[in-house]
Each structure stands twice: as C-alpha cells, then as structure tokens.
Design brief:
single chain, about 140 residues, alpha+beta, 3-stranded mixed β-sheet, globular
Length: about 140
C-alpha cells in the first residue's frame, strides 16, 4: 500500500485526537470529549497535520506495521477494523464516496469536543469522560 493509499484509510472521525485516560485497575481506555491542541473541532481535522509530531511529541503516527500495537485506538477506527479483518462501515468515505458521510451519520467527534488548552488538569479530564458512538459502553 502506498503512503497516499494508507492515509486514505483514515475515516476522519477524530477520536484518535481525543485525550484518553487509562484505568489503572482495569487498563480500560477511556475517551474524553477533550481534543489535542492541534485538532480543529469544527472540521475534525488536524490544523498542522504535516508537522504534528513537532508540536505534539507524543502524537502517534500510524504505520501499517504498528497498528497491531495500538490497542488504544477507537473500536470504530478504520485502521483497526482492517487490521482485525473487519469490513469498513457504510459511512466510511471509501464506501460512501463522501468524506462528510461519517459526520452526517454521527460517527465522528466533529463539533462535540473542546480543546485541551481550555481544560485544566487530570481531575477536570475525569469529569469529561465520554462514551462515543461505536465504543465500549455505547448504547445506540
């Protein structure tokens, strides 16, 4: 798969740009409604994607050979689904033909998050744990 083909797999949900917490007792990954400082909540895109690692050193750059290690990735992540041998959902742009279909179907975080720059500390993050569509605990 070429780099451009690999990049095209991303469904644009934005869930991987959310601040996540890990439960110390269960190792469960808990997503919040707080996004990375580079994430544009209105568009669900990174505001400086080519240079994101320079601005956010712990930003993970997904590669085909490392997807299996990224168990924290959202359950609905297209990279994760393909790695697990599962089909892409109907709303995925490679199936629907529209990058807006994920947002229209309600499976992205577009318009529903706040910047990490506006939320103070881990205590505040604990109050912002959110169950997103398709993730464990979601009842849709």
């Amino acid at each position: 798969m070429s780099p451009a083909e690999w990049e095209s797999v991303c469904d644009g949900c934005g869930k991987c740009c959310l601040i996540s917490l890990q439960d110390e007792d269960t190792d469960e990954i808990l997503l919040t409604d707080v996004h990375c400082k580079l994430f544009d909540g209105a568009t669900a895109l990174c505001s400086d994607y080519p240079n994101r690692k320079r601005h956010v050193p712990d930003c993970v750059i997904l590669k085909p050979e490392t997807v299996a290690e990224l168990t924290w990735m959202p359950q609905t992540c297209a990279y994760r689904l393909l790695h697990e041998g599962k089909p892409l959902p109907e709303w995925h742009h490679l199936r629907s033909g529209s990058v807006q279909s994920i947002h229209e179907a309600g499976w992205s975080v577009q318009g529903a998050t706040v910047s990490e720059l506006t939320v103070g500390g881990e205590e505040a993050l604990l109050k912002r744990i959110t169950v997103w569509p398709g993730e464990p605990g979601w009842e849709g």
